[in-house]
Amino acid sequence: MVEAKNLSMKYEKGGQYALENLNFYINRGEFVFFVGSSGAGKSTLLKLIIREIVPTNGALKIFGRNVGRLPRHRLPYLRRNIGMVFQDFRLMEERTAFDNVAFAMMVTGASRREIRKRVPHVLGLVGLHDKAKARVCDLSGGEMQRVGLARAIANRPAMIIADEPTGNLDPGTTLDIMNLLRGINLRGTTVLVATHNREIVDRFKKRVLYLENGKLVGDEQKGIYAHVH
Amino acid sequence: MLMFISGFFYIIGETLKGLYRNRWMCITSTAVVVVTLFMLGIFMLVNMNLGHITDTVKEQVEIVVYIDDEAQQEALDELRQKLLSHSGIETVTYVSSEEHMARLHRQLGGMLEGYDTELDNPLLASYEIKTVVPESVAVLAEEFKTYPGVSNVFYGQSYVESLFAVTGVVQMVGLALMAGLSITAVFLISHTIKLTVMMRKREISIMKYVGATNWFIRWPFILEGFLMGFVGAVLPLAGLFYLYQFSVEWVSANNLAFLNLLPAQLVIVELATYLVPLGTGLGILGSIFSMGRFLRV
Asked: What is the pLDDT of residue A57?
């Protein structure tokens, strides 16, 4: 599902590698943590996967396609298969929870009827069935991230990518969100989470890829955060 | 087809929502368009009318060739022939010495009373000539002086020359001002629209992340730009129409008939064919160009 071969990324010519010679393979349906301190290259890796940036060297295959060679006009179709969750939620705050989720579906050309059926369903999945009409700016941080999750799964993507999804949340809410992500994973969706939250990594005991200074320094099934050092 | 229709309604809906949500920014942008196009419109009105007035004056410019009353019939025939076949001449009118005297009578009224005009008429017969190109009178007048049977040539030399000099300068200045204002309008309008788009870059980046195609994102913005540009052009047009109509009425009420102004309807139609495409075009292009940067996510 995600395959990196000698993957390297430099932001500036002659500058330092943000990622250097990464090799890994992630199977369909896996739950993977990318861990490492700030600047280790986690966000760069996620940006490469959604092809916000293009690798300097090597290849990155998503769903069997080399994203570095993906023509620009195919990009939207790649992203419709990847649900994204952000630390800062990235929601349209003036609009309702319903609108935010519906928007992701509208973009793919879903019909009104489908949207009216699917949006309440996914909001129910993340426990927000009674907040559909609330404006996002009136919700709590945890609720906002639930809207983000609902938006990410609305189009039934094959993969969810979460960049520090709990970075702005308190410990209790963090656990709720992570449990939701695990639930999504149990239904067959591949989930990739970049985090430096030691507790949740240790608690969930999933596959962990350790990044340090742009290099992959460890890849463990049922890993725990402490192994980084 | 179904998707196309739902997409169409989506775009209309998003456009209206976008305009409402960002109403203050949109009102500001539209106001900038209104003010700039209004000023541009005023300059255009002034220039159009100056052009019209000078054209009217130019039409009245003529050369008078006085005929030597002692010339031989042969010379007179040759002169007549030369004038009639000249390519630079539009019309030639023969005015006899009797006709000149009659005109003088009309102009002076009773002042020539008792003067025996039929026996002792000192006035020369003449040809009144309108040239094809009004600016060519000076050159042609010199040429006519060399013709046989010509006593003298008159064309109001200093008057005509200074008239052409002044109108030429005024129109050039007007054109320069209009060009300057047009460029200013382009900058002002595209920058305000850029601001409107920048305030929504977050929204645009979210659209990109959930997999919206560039055109899906662009259409509502383009339509917004079009509407802002259209309203921004129609409002000043309406204002200019009433202002201009008022000026035309004021001029005729104050007996300034020599200020031969163009009719309001005609002028506004011509203004509209310039300002409406300019406004809407700038709105659309401004939206497309200012979005380019944010679409590259």
From this structure: 92
Best residue in B6, B209, B214 for a mutation probing chain A (most A CBs within 10 Å)? B209
Per-residue H/E/C for chain B: CHHHHHHHHHHHHHHHHHHHHCHHHHHHHHHHHHHHHHHHHHHHHHHHHHHHHHHHHHHHCCEEEEECCCCCHHHHHHHHHHHHHCCCEEEEEEECHHHHHHHHHHHHHHHHCCCCCCCCCCCCCEEEEEECCHHHHHHHHHHHHCCCCEEEEECCHHHHHHHHHHHHHHHHHHHHHHHHHHHHHHHHHHHHHHHHHHCCHHHHHHHHHCCCCHHHHHHHHHHHHHHHHHHHHHHHHHHHHHHHHHHHHHHHHCCCCCCCCCCHHHHHHHHHHHHHHHHHHHHHHHHHHHHHHHHCC
| B contact residues 214-243, partner A, Cβ 8 Å cutoff | 214, 216
- What confidence category does residue B1 fall into, taking pLDDT thresholds of 50, 70 and 90? very low
- B6/A112 Cβ within 8 A: yes
What ipTM does this complex have? 0.83
Residues of B in contact with A76 (CB under 8 A): 208, 211-214, 216
Model confidence at B144, pLDDT cuts 50, 70, 90, reads confident
Residues in chain A within 8 Å Cβ distance of B7: 109
Question: Between residues B171 and A65, which one has the greater pLDDT?
Answer: A65
* Range(s) of chain B covered by CATH 3.30.70.3040: 62-154
Instruction: Look at residue B297 in the predicted model and tell me its pLDDT.
Output: 62
Does pTM surpass 0.80? no
Give the fold, CATH level 3, of B62-154.
Alpha-Beta Plaits (3.30.70)
How many whole angstroms separate alpha carbon B64 and alpha carbon B129? Answer: 6
B295: chain A residues, CB-CB within 8 Å: none
Using pLDDT thresholds of 50, 70 and 90, give the confidence band for residue B4: low
Q: What percent of chain B has pLDDT over 70?
A: 90
**What pLDDT, on a 0 to 100 scale, did the predictor assign at position B188?**
74
Interface check A229 vs B, CB under 8 A = no
